[in-house]
Structures are given as structure tokens and as C-alpha cells.
Amino acid sequence: MEDPESEGAAPPPGLSSLLPPREFLRSRKGQLLLAESVLSFIIFICYIASLAASFMMAPLLEFLLALFLFFAYASKLNEKFKGVHWPLADFLRCVTAAIIYFAISIAAVSKYSDGASKAAGVFGFAATIVFAVDFYITFNDLVTFLKQGSSDSPEGRKTEDEDSDSDSD
């Protein structure tokens, strides 16, 4: 009797169908989004357990946004929904998250004396660095994309038309 796994048959559907593909998990974007999600969740839990519970909303929102983008990129929603400018939305999310995490981490470390607030502040500084790396990489991708788009702009076509007109004279 042959083993169905040896024939290259697909595994039965289940929880594994909800997991993102390995290629995405190995990509730089996948690893950054996963790190952002994990750090945001840890910071959220730390703020819940601390005296600085008023700061818990920012990590919760960042966790949900990072998780949404993680699964959106993993399931290639960015290719299906062309109306949304995904790199720009991701860039703005990363910039605002880095600024917010930096600000609330300083406040949590300096104003509150309990251990959970200090831990949330330290993880917040780590999240600031991860979000800053992500927005730097996303910014470079965005600039490259915009430079490619500027060659198709009307200004680029005008100079080509003027050159061809002067050559025909």
C-alpha cells in the first residue's frame, strides 16, 4: 500500500491552510511584520499589567494593523486590491508607530516605577527600532517606485516630443 504523502499529494485542509506560506515568512517583509506583531502584543500585555494602562491602546492598534498587513501581504491582497497604495499606507503606519512607541516608551520609563511599565518601555524602544527599520526599507522601495513612475509622467513625454520635433526641423 502506497503512502499518499509520498505521491506529493497536498495535506488535508485544516489549520495549516490558515498559516502564511514559508516563502513569505522567510522574506524580509514577513519577518519585520511578524516582529512588529509580536512586539506590539508583548507591549500591550505589559501595559495591561502595569500602572501605565492608559497607554495600552496604541500597542493594541499597532498589533492589529501589523497582523492585518501580515496576512494581507501573505495572502497577496495587495495584488488583488490595486486601488489601495499599499507601500504608502505601510510607510505611514511604520512612521507613526515608531514615533508613538518612542513617545510612550519615554513616558512609561520616566513616569512610572513599576516593573511592567519599565518592561513595556524597553520593549517599546525595541519596537521603535523595528518600525524604524521597516519604514526605512519601505521608504527606499517607495522612492524606487516613484522614480519608475516619473519616467512615464507627462513632463518626460514633453521633452521627448520636443526632441523629436527639433530633430525633424
TrEMBL record:
First-listed, main subcellular location of the protein, grouped into a coarse class: membrane
Transmembrane segments annotated in the record for this chain: 32-50, 56-74, 86-108, 120-139
Keyword terms: Membrane, Transmembrane, Transmembrane helix
GO annotations of cellular component type: membrane
Residues annotated as signal peptide: none
Pfam families, per database record: MARVEL
Protein's recorded name: CKLF3 protein
UniProt organism field: Toxostoma redivivum
Gene: Cmtm3
